[in-house]
Amino acid sequence: MTEREAYRILGLSPGADGAELKRTYRRLMMQAHPDAGKDAVPDRARELNLAYAVLKGAAVPGKKAPSRASAERDPDPQKNAGWDAPLNPNAYAGREILCYAEDQDGAPLGSFPIAKGKYLWRVEEDFPLFLLSIYRCSREILDEADAALNRVSPPSREGIHAQLAYLLAQQFIDGTALLPRLAKKCPPDRSGEPVFCLSAMLEPSGAPAVFSEEEPLYPSALRRHRLYVKQKSGKEAGYLSFPDDRLYYVVVPLLEQRRVRIRIQAASDPSGPKNRGRNRGQRLNVWLKWADGHNALPPENLNLQIEELLALYRDTPRAPREPF
């Protein structure tokens, strides 16, 4: 698809800014919603989405918009199904790509799927909708397990659901590609390796820790997908809190998989310790660099972990049925 065709499909004049592009795209996608009534055209969503992807790609410096040949002859059928993100063919299951539907005034009507497949998440996809797609995918997997055993949901389902969703999310998040986009790039180290900088807060897990500014901190443990840190004395100080929720799903898995090395240091606070709120955490500076021999691909053992989790779920005793 050419840029000219994309502008025609969206009814925009060449050179329309990003805000107008996004507003028009959402309005037209709302009309293509399956619940929009007799005027809804199911195949229209794919055409609108491809046109939107072409124009968004053209707005990124150095990024070439897909040609007609690449759009029509792509050998991968999933990429012609309404979304153009890269794939993880080894993912345990496919997920939905969801899009917001809005009315003419911009009020949200909900969300609906425009594609389904083993698509990796990219920053252009709304992150709350990505998490919703993972929640739905994991729910479907557990529903299939329950149906195969002809049972009602066992008591442990909620906890298993959360663990399964976390494992599935890792299969669709390419931390190696996303960390450079979500973090600030710092000067390389002495060996020339790239270093990425993040800001974080130290949330005390008990009594507030007392330490001086610029004091180094050390990773203590990863528990329940949180990174706990300790002081030089060995006393646990609390856990890291990121201002951007997306970083939890990028940084923590990279640490769990030992694909990055980390350095943490308390940041100087311009307000001073006397003006710091009693319950306010300490600001931290975090530096990350790739570990030696890190793999650029999602770990293959995630499917094994998912299978083990589902085996545990299938072995869970049946929940008691209500008496007739």
Question: Would you kindly provide a written description of the structure presented here, covering whatever features stand out?
Answer:
Residues 63-87 are annotated as: Disordered. It holds the Pfam family DnaJ. InterPro entries: DnaJ_domain (IPR001623), J_dom_sf (IPR036869). It is built from nine helices and nine strands. Residues 59-81, 272-279 and 320-324 have low confidence and may be disordered. It has helices spanning 3-10, 18-31, 42-58, 68-73, 127-149, 157-171, 175-182, 248-256, 301-314, and strands at residues 95-102, 108-117, 184-186, 195-203, 216-223, 226-230, 236-241, 260-266, 282-290. By secondary structure, the chain is α+β, with helices and mostly antiparallel strands. A six-stranded antiparallel barrel has the order 4-7-6-5-8-9. A two-stranded antiparallel sheet has the order 1-2. It is 35% helix and 20% strand.
